[in-house]
Amino acid sequence: xxxxxxxxxxxxxxxSSLDPVEVYMLGIEINRQSEVSLKRQIYHKLRDYILDGRIxxxxxxxxxxxxxxxxxxxxxxxxxAYDMLLAEGFVLxxxxxxxxxxxxxxxxxxxxxxxxxxxxxxxxxxxADFRTGQPDLRYFPRxxxxxxxxxxxxxMPLYQFGYSGPDGLTQLxxxxxxxxxxxxxxxVDPCDxxxxxxxxxxxHLISGMLYEEGKEILMEDPCHMGxxxxxxxxxxxxxxxxxxxxxxxxxHLDGKAAWAIYVTPSHQFPLGGILPAGRRAGLIRxxxxxxxxxxxxxxxxxxxxxxxxxxxxYSMDPQRVIYVGTFSKVLFPALxxxxxxxxxxxxxxWRYLRTHTDVQNPPFEQAALAEFLRSRKIDRxxxxxxxxxxxxxxxxxxxLAEQFGNTWHSWGDATGLHIAVEFPGMQFGYExxxxxxxxxxxxxxxxxxxxxxGKHLDKxxxxxxxxxIDEINKGISVLNKFITSI
Length: 486
Hints:
The chain has helices spanning 38-51, 64-71, 75-87, 112-122, 142-155, 170-184, 198-210, 225-233, 277-290, 347-355, 363-374, 377-404, 430-438, 469-485; strands at 21-23, 29-31, 91-92, 100-101, 128-129, 193-196, 216-221, 238-244, 247-248, 258-263, 293-297, 321-326, 338-341, 409-411, 418-422, 441-442, 444-445, 459-463. The chain is of the alpha/beta class. Mean pLDDT is 90; it is low at 1-19 and 118-122.
């Protein structure tokens, strides 16, 4: 009998006879109490040995009789495991010859454990966490949401358990229309509202509808890095348009051959400016003259601390502006429900594209969100969180003044869940961010979100929505000590 040269020990027994896991020839472990069948356990182990090269190409496997004896299982179990390997092409078998490993199967393992260890170390021993776009999930009414979700699923008509189409649930679109009127003061026909899996996914679909070969999308610089990557990953060229404290500088649009313009006019990300009426009008004129659309991302503008939310650009020209909104920051990111307000002429394209990607959002969360909106629970939740975030914003500004004196100033409007802070004369490049990370300080710079590098090296982004006031004070103190030490 020819056995693999890797079989060094015929038997290896476990220490305790009570342990259900037994170790045998080739180091195969079988667990007789597992829900996974013995044949599949044996198949998995042999397959793994073949893939990682412990059993080399051309080497024979033990005979089914010998391996069955060593593992104390029936020969049929081994035959079935070998048949699975044979069916998938891991081994070759011929009459009167041993079963041998096929050629070209070895795949050396990557050091995934090291990679995972490095990733986990990134967030070990965090001393200050200033990540942006992080709502405080501790204050979300989970019990209330669970009750609404259960009730919505229990009462949902059976036909909605199937494919309900690319538009979204009718009742949710109607409630979003009411929400937009209450919170933004804009009237939207529910049939112009389409449900998406968040704002970034909405941008994926919109760009797929509008893209024209040989043209670029005009995009604020700096901008939301997630949106920029979404476009670049699709191979679409991006033309950066600089911003100032008021948002996109529209004079830089002249002469550009574009298929769309992407803006965050109510709260520019990341600098926080509000696009003034004159620039908004100029932006719409440019879009009309060039026959293109404006993609308006209404980024976390629900949380404005010195007045009502800014009216969307959409209200000035619903046929030229595509509005993208989301409930990720208002409720919780895992909800993955956003929405797009589309001009009528784009409805057909949207439905076709969505139908041939993922068809629809799950209906249960849509129904629950519709009830959350209908009962005005979202209005009360937003009001509560707005007060909370407003207090934290004040605490952050006070902590900056106490720790850094007058060596800094903030950018933008009092809106959102982060502050852009400029430290004149300082530079916060990649090396600085890396040192912060290794020292337990989690943050991003404006430079990180810039398309054209080198213009905003002196600005940091400090998220505060998820931090208690004592965490904010401690974090700014840690940041001050770190900056003065380098």
